[in-house]
Amino acid sequence: MRLFSEQECRQGVGLPFEIQQKLRSGDFAFVTEMGRNLQLDEQVLCTANYMINVFFTRRSYLNYDRHIVSTSALILSCKLHNFKRQNKRIYPIAFVSYYHNIIHSKLHTNSDRQPPVFDENLKAEYLSKIFKAEFKLMKTLEFDMEIDLPIYYLDLIIDKLYAGVEDRAIFLTMARVMANESMRTIAPLCIRALAVAVASVVLAGVICNMPRPQQLIRIPNPEEWWTNVSPDLQLSEITQAMRIIMEALTLK
């Protein structure tokens, strides 16, 4: 996974950053809604969101149908994660059906117009657009499908910093919420997944009223607490991730 600079991410498509962030939040909401309907797990959704964010860091929002790109990212992510849902294979036509339902429920909410009939011709049109977008996604990702995610590290970090904490399940759930929130930001694009995961745990700790990591006297070297997770970590990348996530939350 290639990391971008933060400046690249902020200026990549020539739009003001606040507008970019609102578009990212919209894509995140679309992926979440379709994923909930199709009962996809969070690894699939996080991977799809990462792909979408990389795509629109390198390509302009003005040249693509964001919802087609998002649907393509979900299909590609499912392929990477064995294309299964609760041990049942899930097919592209299911994504096409939900794409049609979601898009036209938004377009026709306050209108007397009826959505187009979801016939074979329309299915074929959607599939053609989605498969073309899927190839463009892979090309934009330079066919690098080894995608690291913050959610992979949460258990490890909590065990390293907050071993034996009460209500661990609640704490882990909040950490997962923050890690998922990070996927609608540029943080995973410009900061290592492990550092984003640590930032997510620290923010979850604030929400759950946990002690700050530097106050955890039971861990070795609390003044440099992040080294208990990994000696390669830098405090600067953790604080950078926290700043970016908090910025996105205020723009939500």
Automatic annotation (TrEMBL):
Cyclin-like domain sequence ranges: 29-139
Keyword Membrane: yes
Any Pfam family matching the protein: Cyclin_N
The UniProt record lists the keyword Transmembrane helix: yes
Alphabetized SMART domains for the sequence: CYCLIN
Keyword terms: Cyclin, Membrane, Transmembrane, Transmembrane helix
Biological source species: Blepharisma stoltei
Protein name: Cyclin-like domain-containing protein
Family that this chain belongs to: Belongs to the cyclin family.
Molecular-function GO terms, alphabetical: cyclin-dependent protein serine/threonine kinase regulator activity
Example GO BP: regulation of transcription by RNA polymerase II
Transmembrane intervals: 186-208
